[in-house]
């Protein structure tokens, strides 16, 4: 096999973008094996743009056809685990869109099945893991350059969506159709990066607003407080109603600080001595010298790096890495099994707000599913006690 034949399930905005990337030759080790969509109109689109590519309206038929070596799931979130399992059962490699699923119970089932197929490649489209900026941040943390983490803060409100976005289709921004709002649709990348870089918290307490500034059932405003269990804390804020938007990620360590602005610029300040050591040895005269214009050169070094991003480059990097793993065993940048972490974090934030209290991770998966089921029933107009 010289190129991986990818089956694209769902020819919407994302699936269409992937098809375009491959057709343009931007994924050197991949070709379009087949396209699948249940919408008859997409068949005409595929026939016009990719006339030589087989088209299916049933993804199982596509999996059984022999036309594809792997699939990517560009479909509603609930379907990701089911499609992943069905692909792996048929010895077809699986690349899942984010999030891996809506609730950890279904994602865990997928992960457990994937373990029985170690010879197959199972990946997830965490394209931000290929972003050089976040790779740099992770390396600085992993190398201990700013010491142990004391606090994380991420304000990511650049996900502005007008009411018209939600009105596009009946399944969008519903508990039954998407399983949530900004946490499962727009912010999964940041939830993954947060835990990938700083680790998973032990407890979560959240204040979540549902239909706060949009006529929707799910969340459009989130504030979550994270407890890492070792004294370190974090705050995660996201929303879809801030048209001006902010993307600022700060990580404070006991030997320095990282500040990421707009996912483009990272400022790294490395203390010349650990903060605790300075606290123990410096008197108020030393402090006054620093804060009265004495300069900070003796306190820390500062490094500022700006990164440029090309649209689609991060997605194609994941696709190329996924194909390389199939072809020659190149290590995966985003293993599919990692997808459960971000889902667990989103579930914990939801559950904390539903119960009105702090929750511990891992959460009670059966309790979460029961509460989610209540939300779906209420959305349908079914009394919660039925």
From TrEMBL:
- Report the InterPro entries cross-referenced here: Gfo/Idh/MocA-like_OxRdtase_N (IPR000683), Gfo/Idh/MocA_Oxidoreductase (IPR052515), GFO_IDH_MocA-like_dom (IPR055170), NAD(P)-bd_dom_sf (IPR036291)
At the top level, the lineage of the source is Bacteria
Q: Which residues form the Gfo/Idh/MocA-like oxidoreductase N-terminal domain?
A: 5-118
A GO term, aspect molecular function: nucleotide binding
Task: Show where the GFO/IDH/MocA-like oxidoreductase domain sits.
Answer: 134-258
Q: What name appears for this protein in its UniProt entry?
A: Dehydrogenase
Organism the protein comes from: Planococcus lenghuensis
